[in-house]
Specification:
Recoverin, domain 1, 505 residues, five-stranded antiparallel sheet, globular, alpha+beta, 3 domains
Length: 505
């Protein structure tokens, strides 16, 4: 790779992204992550080792990432820096300096980022997927790790801090929450984080989805800080967020989806905190987010990329690629249009003449999919078994591991030590099996159809009674479907498929 004349050899390149990657199939220009130090630890470009190259496939303006990150920074929220780059590609015999087009380079969130923003490389950095409101999953860190996704192996003290924070948000009584919440995280910083997401209508984050943000536990402060990631469909550009006209009218007082969001709801229920949030909104609207200031910055950014964007468009057309994929027929508003209409909506809401749009999920489970709306369906069960049974943590579950876990379930459920359990006792005591010697999450654990399904599998002779042997062998069919061999084992995907085939909804 050559950057401004500097040759870099032995780099690592991979595609990245979910929807932004999948919707651009057939296009040569895709999101990429480039590791400049892949084969040489000492290789970098101006001390930068990792480049995030965002193609802007879902952003016709190519400015949403850069503009949004800049606004977060100016509002006092830690956020990655950005710049622009034009890329060409050479593959001998196929392409010779083929113009890929205009990319936004986004700073990697790593130890260098933490040191620059927080004054220390230490602390716990997490990039949650499946967590929107610091959901509580008991006192076993294994159930948190795949959801909170820590950057490094956390210490026992750090994992306890995460679990206690989640417990306070979801189970602390009103007085406990009021008295303790500020000791757990930067409340003012979080209010600014929410305010900016609200003003730029960035719904594809914890406002409506359990993703696209970072959570950092400071070493010295022992407090959590939220900051943004993946902003290419901000400015009302999320295809699943409703009509653009509705998104541009997003509510200031209830910016999160209609699904329960304990952290935001409980904070806003505290009058001094809600007043502080309102003050932050008005401060930003009167300054950084005024129509005039936004237009001025947008004009500056557009001037910077105008010629490069024309070359980008020309290259895409020359390769007969479709460009913006318009998922579900969605067409995002232009940023200039957004600034005008969003400013009008904000003015009406602040004047009290309207309340704004509240996004409502159409799918079952809403914001958290299979982890919400009842909490514990088949998907959650499969994940739970996979984590709880995987004793050696090799990402596989053997028959021996499965039998050991189910035997422990039975022992925790058989409180009378009778060696057998009837249906009512089985269903009532399942939470004790899932969360042994632990504080338990709220909600139905598991969903009734899951509890019924598990009992039916174990009660193979239909006598209404389950023994330890019945339960330990009840899921053997998962392994038999996989492979009748004694060495058969299950990974997460086969566990999910197997549970769905055995327990019907």
């Amino acid at each position: 790779m050559t950057i401004n004349g500097q040759r870099l050899n032995g780099i690592g390149v991979r595609y990245k992204g979910n929807a932004s990657f999948n919707l651009m199939r057939g296009s040569l220009k895709r999101n990429m992550k480039i590791k400049l130090d892949w084969t040489n630890d000492d290789q970098s470009y101006k001390s930068v080792e990792t480049l995030n190259l965002n193609a802007g496939g879902l952003d016709p303006s190519k400015l949403r990432d850069a503009f949004s990150y800049w606004l977060f920074q100016q509002a006092g929220v830690p956020a990655p820096r950005t710049t622009f780059a034009e890329l060409t590609l050479t593959i001998p015999g196929r392409f010779e300096k083929e113009t890929l087009g205009l990319f936004t380079i986004v700073e990697q969130v790593n130890k260098s980022f933490l040191n620059d923003r927080f004054g220390s490389k230490k602390g716990l950095l997490m990039k949650p997927e499946g967590i929107a409101s610091v959901e509580f999953h008991g006192d076993d860190w294994r159930f948190y790790a795949p959801l909170y996704r820590p950057d490094d192996t956390p210490t026992a003290v750090q994992t306890r801090r995460v679990m206690d924070f989640a417990h306070l948000v979801n189970h602390g009584n009103e007085q406990e929450f009021r008295d303790s919440i500020a000791s757990y995280f930067d409340v003012d910083g979080f209010l600014r984080f929410i305010a900016v997401n609200t003003l730029i209508v960035n719904l594809d984050t914890l406002l409506a989805m359990p993703q696209n943000y970072y959570l950092h536990l400071g070493r010295d402060t022992n407090k959590f800080v939220f900051f943004p990631w993946d902003l290419d469909i901000s400015f009302a550009g999320w295809p699943l967020g409703g009509k653009p006209a509705d998104q541009m009218n997003l509510s200031l007082i209830h910016p999160h989806s209609s699904d329960e969001h304990n952290l935001i709801d409980r904070l806003f229920a505290i009058e001094p905190i809600k007043m502080k949030y309102d003050k932050i909104i008005r401060e930003l609207v009167d300054g950084l987010f005024s129509r005039e200031q936004l237009m001025k910055k947008f004009d500056e950014l557009e001037k910077t990329v105008r010629d490069a964007r024309k070359r980008d468009t020309t290259a895409v057309k020359a390769r007969n690629e479709r460009g913006y994929p318009a998922p579900f027929g969605f067409q995002p508003p232009g940023i200039r249009e957004f600034i005008d209409k969003r400013s009008n909506s904000i003015e009406r809401q602040l004047n009290g003449t309207e309340t704004g749009y509240i996004f409502k999920h159409g799918r079952p489970g809403g914001r958290l999919g299979h982890l919400a709306n009842g909490n514990f369906g088949r998907g959650r069960l499969a994940m739970h078994i996979m984590i709880q049974a995987d004793i050696n943590e090799d990402q596989w579950v053997t028959k021996e591991e499965l039998h050991t876990m189910l035997g422990e379930w039975f022992d925790s459920m058989d409180r009378e030590k009778a060696g057998k359990i009837n249906k009512a006792s089985f269903i009532k005591s399942l939470p004790d099996a899932f969360f042994q010697n632990s504080r338990k999450p709220t909600g139905r654990i598991p969903e009734p159809y899951v509890a019924e399904g598990l009992f039916t599998l174990a009660d193979s002779d239909k006598d209404g009674i389950v023994t330890k042997k019945d339960l330990t062998t009840s899921l053997n069919r998962l392994l038999e479907k996989k492979n009748p061999d004694e060495n058969a084992k299950l990974n997460q995907r086969s566990m999910m498929i197997g549970i769905r085939s055995l327990i019907r909804h």
